[in-house]
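Posting this for the archive.
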Amino acid sequence: MSATDRMPPTPAGEAAALARRLDLPLAVLFGLGVTIGAGIYVLIGATAGRAGMHAPLAFLLAAVVMAPTAASFAELAGRMPVSAGEAAYVKAGFRSEALALVVGCMVIATGVISAAAISRGSAGYIAELIDLPSAIIVPSVVLAMGAIAAWGILQSVALAGLLTLIEVGGLLAIIAVGAARSPELMTRVPEIWTGIGETAVVAGILSASLLAFFAFIGFEGLANIAEEVKQPEKNVPLAIFLTLGLSTLLYMLVVWIALVSVPHAELATARAPLSLVFQRVTGASPTVIVAIAIVATINGIIVQMVMASRVVYGLADRHLLPPLLARINRLTQTPLEATALVIAAVLLLAVALPLEGLAELTSRLTLAVFAFVNAALGCLKWRGEAPPAGAYVTSRWVPWTGLILCLALLVGDLAG
């Protein structure tokens, strides 16, 4: 057991602390749960419309673009395994509490806005099975998921892990049945890179990769539960890389099965592309995939709430927000006040604002945060500040590459 895992009982009169409850498998499940979700259910059709049979390459390219930022987060999580990780990284890199607070608030905003958007999306799926108005479903979903997030980190992540297994299981079922029923699956693989040198093909892949990029957002949430992970200097970097690698493999397989099973022109115009693929591949009722989509969305709500509440707690613990928000409940060992604030913000946005535009705002904020984090690590390396012994260390050029890629995508998105 490492020093960071030893959590002695809190003496009477002293503040409670976050408990290190999560091992590597649970951390990976958390990472997969916050990364794989509603995105893959809606992005397949759009990427197919832009890249056609080359869509798997778009997801691979997006993963390659994301890799330097993942490496930066992996090193920084080992250097500073704390809640509100991004804010701590920026403070250390730029030596500015004001900038750290700005970045921390941006991270909180992305979690809250994302959870609100997912809540509205989840309500739409639930309404397919239960005849209730959105005005009832949305608050019910937010409050129920908020209660789970407040219950305890082990319970929250264990449930999120179970839901992740269900949503990933649905995608694996599509892959397995598709592979068994599509004998041309392997023989058509050359179509992925056919015509790769043509200008139109390259343009389509690049355009689709901008969409595919957003399917990988979420792994950075692992940095914000580092205080609750056992041996964080080892397990958090491993969890980040495993999350990115497994997500990439799963996305590419699902997309290829979809393209082989359904003509990409039809897939591109489908309102529920994965539901269409599921029906073609398995012959089963779309109710099954609707149920899995509900699981995927409510899972996303839980993990986003957990992430956002830990950032609120981390900022308050560093005296950047009111100290009340840094309190840890002795029974649940979670920051209840911080979680309650996040729940209230999610509920307000989910009820008051439409779904349109929430996802785009989340993505832009995330890219901006990624740029700050890469720059912060670049500054630490430039000053020669060595990480703790045993921590993961990436090359000096990696954070600067991540910074350039993030800024390029952000500028390209805003210009478009």
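Confidence is low (pLDDT under 50) at residues 1-14. The chain has 15 helices and no strands.
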